[in-house]
Amino acid sequence: MALLFYSEYDDPSDWGKHLREAIPGLDFRVWPEAGDPRDIQAAMVWKAPEGELRKFPNLRLIINLGAGVDSIVQDRSLPEGIPIVRIADPDMSRMMAQFVLAAVLRHYRDFVSFARAQKERRWHYLHPREAPACSVGVMGLGNLGAMAASELVRQGFQVSGWARSPKSLEGVKSFHGKEGFAPFLAKSEILVVMLPLTPETEGVLDAKALSLLPRGAKIVNVGRGKLVDEGALIAALRSGHIAEATLDVFQVEPLPSTSPLWDFDQVLVTPHLASVAIPRTAARQVAENLRRLAAGEPLINVVDPKRGY
Ligand code: NDP
Hints:
Elements: E1 2-6, H1 12-22, E2 27-30, E3 40-45, E4 61-64, H2 70-73, E5 84-86, H3 90-108, H4 111-119, E6 135-139, H5 143-154, E7 158-163, E8 172-176, H6 177-187, E9 190-193, H7 207-212, E10 217-221, H8 230-239, E11 242-247, E12 267-269, H9 279-295
Parallel strand pairs: 1-2, 1-3, 3-4, 4-5, 6-7, 6-9, 7-8, 9-10, 10-11, 11-12
Helix pairs in contact: 1-9, 3-5
């Protein structure tokens, strides 16, 4: 079977190396060198050009080269009826948990205030609070959110989480659904956004939702930019209702140079890299899915296009 690879962000030679180790003799082709389109039975893609995958008449599997599937499930140009699987890898979750922890600690340990004071050559003593006095809310408790929440528990924070369904994670107070939304936000002094972008979650953090956070709350968004009403966030940053933010994802990426978000010294802008698919470990699950596909067995990490994640 031939596997086609397309990504502008990931290294095909690294993926090829690890995939060939997992599947000796794998016919691994890197776009645009696809060869005879009839040979391609699986495609591993991150944001493939529109309509591209329709060129392969024998395509049986689409592998999304990442955890977030919003761009692929919204792509109306994909051939119909072909299963989509995604990367759900503990090493990717660990990389995300590290980013979240770094961001939360930066807010919790007042690094933003110290950076401001340093610019003014001002000695600015703020007595540290202990972690159990600080409440952190994690929106989305899936593969990535659950590991980040557990890591925050390990650091001693008061952690709560919000998902569609109730969760039982050690040390994490679980909220779910519409009824859990307002009480969850009211408790989140630092809010970590790790939801997938779906028709249900788009704009979930609008002006009303932001107003439900405690005054002076801090936001870490590593989910998707369109989960948050950016205009409302900017207004809340200006009013001080939201004191600080760490933003890795934006409504428009790259973030336009005209965005006011660049100007706030209390906002850290990072270019959508909180976590990435790691070939060394994730190649194994891609290989497993290719094996299952060949054997006609049920696939793993299957995306539900209707649910959107
Ligand atoms: P999962 O699909 O494993 O988990 C999604 C979580 O969100 C689940 O807990 C789910 O609830 C919850 N959820 C979904 N819809 C709703 C809703 N309407 N209301 C409440 N909760 C909801 O995703 P991952 O953890 O693997 O990834 C999360 C997101 O992180 C990705 O979709 C992607 O957008 C983003 N991401 C960002 C990266 C970056 O570098 N910035 C890198 C990788 C991913 P339930 O469990 O009840 O189904």
